[in-house]
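Bench notes, bay 3.
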Amino acid sequence: MESPDEAGQGEPAGAPPVPAASSPAPAARIPRGLQILPALLLVVIAVWEIVATRHDATSVPDDTSWARAADLVRAGYRPGDLIVFAPEWIDPVGRLHLGDLIPIDAAARMDAARFPRIWEVAIRDARAADTTGLTPAGTEDRDGIAIRWYDQTPAKVLADLRDRLSTVRTDGGSTPILELAEVGFRPHRCVQVAPGAKGAIRLTFPGVPLGSQLVGYVGIADVFTRRDNRAPATLDIEIGGRVVASATAGVDDGWVRFAATTTPGPADVTVIARSAMGARLICFAAEARQ
């Protein structure tokens, strides 16, 4: 006699029959050409990267090219000219070849307005900030190095506040000093001050011979204090008890320009430097121009 399990093949009585397991559908076949397409794409990308890398490497001018460019600049250079490089990261290479024609006063300039001619040595179609708005008087190319020169009427400076520290009156903060400082990773000769506990310092320059404009710049000196102290610096310029110009320099702003229209004649000029936090080195420079 068969057992219930044998009779029902292991299924409980009355259970619906279990359908036979269906075979999995065969996977769709990918055409062989499409299978190798990703590999071909990777090969194309790799070849393109190699070519692009080699092009970038060979597009950088070598020492011979730089020597030829420097010879052209030297042939036309006159004492009092300014030499600049673009983009900024080629500055060390440019100084290697032309640094003897860049005195400290030119390297640490307030701006380029005093210079009658500017030589711009550039690669990759770059322009220097000092030539913004100017049209080149001439252009030459030496193996991918562009040499442009710009002629301009130099600004007539009636007074430079950096030269008048012997007469300045100070209220609050540190004693102002004339410093060759790093501001925005560039050298600048400037008046350096540190606001006191009240967060401000006032410097009054008496009897400044003013022209039609007072132009200046302000920035935060010393990369290490900028790293530890992120507070901005503010500079106000007062003439006749009235604020005529203001500028704020953040830690990443570098050398910030300000300007004010002035009435010709002698006047007291007061500079108020502020910072919300202590240990802040503020540098500024300003000129009275005709």
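Next record in the batch:
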Amino acid sequence: MHEGDEALALHALGWILSDEPRAERLLGMTGLDPDGLRASLGERATLAAILSFLTAHEADLVACAGALDIPPDHLAAAARRLEGHERIAP
């Protein structure tokens, strides 16, 4: 995992949770309830699901990237790394 991926996913989660309908979509997609989400924030699969939620909806991806002041492809790359689909060179 890239060093900043976990922090990036948590920042993205903060953005997601700032909008109730978007937060409800995330919970529906992950199958978690708010307590389950909180309890699993240290798990790679949950962090990957947070970023995958954004990559599945381009408008949210672009809006979140803008709010975090990063390029959208940084969120997408972090999602791939957390999912185990992208390796980091040593």
